[in-house]
Predict the structure of NTE family protein.
Amino acid sequence: MTDSEPSPSAAPFRPRTVLVLGGGGMKGTAHVGVWKALEEAGVIPDAIIGCSIGALIATAISGGMGWRELGDMARALRRQDIVSINRRAVFMGGVREESVFDGPHYRRFLADRLPLRSFADAQIPVRVNAVSLVGCGEVWFGTGVRDDIDPVDAVYASCAIPIYFPPLKRDGDVLVDGGVLNNVPVDQALAWGAERIIAVDVGAEILPPAAGLFDRGMIAIHDRVLTMNIAQQRVRAMEAWKGHPVTHIRPRIGHLGTWDFERTQYFLEEGYRATKEALARGPETGGAGI
């Protein structure tokens, strides 16, 4: 059985409308505003797909959290809730450490916040992606695929940005952030059988480098590489979208930082605004404007 094939115990399921929530760090709190606008419009997807921060929000929604609860959680979020420095990484020889942040600290945050304890209990079918450093490809967890994993572990893996968080090691595999290969996985929605896709892209935009950026060390350079990677993924996503009805939601937040904890309310409002605008515009079929 491949990572994308249904598990033997899963009943066949083909969702008509699939919501795809992409990765983007703290900018992904805009997904909460998206969910509010969709609820108000009476648009409830048959399934949700999430990558990275989108995996967190997707799994929370599938576990029963509404936009009010999600909004309260997002506004209360502080850097120290997620980020704890791996002190061994800043000592001599720290280059051999897996990450600059502490993984168990972030996993405890997820365990405390996520309501879903088993993918079998999802109120809305959900799938999240990670990337295998062993198999060098995407791995999918959730409804109808690999559903035997704790959703907390699946979300952690999907959010494990290389260098920042250590990979999830499970069953002989080493898993990192799904956005490394597929930040807005519209192709998975199509493979699942979606007839209508609502895709939310909160990834970074390529801007001229700030003064002194390349003098700030390996993390600044790593972030620049990831930004270029995400931009190239957008180009490939355009090809996947051609001929399919996609409601593309692109909040005006791509110029802001991955770790920006000071603009949460703006992210929420911009997600809401962009969704209202996209719903009024209607689906696109050529991938234009991604």
Summary: The chain has one domain: 19-281. The longest strand covers residues 126-132. Residues 19-281 form a domain with the Cytosolic phospholipase A2 catalytic domain fold (CATH 3.40.1090.10). DSSP finds nine helices and eight strands in the chain.
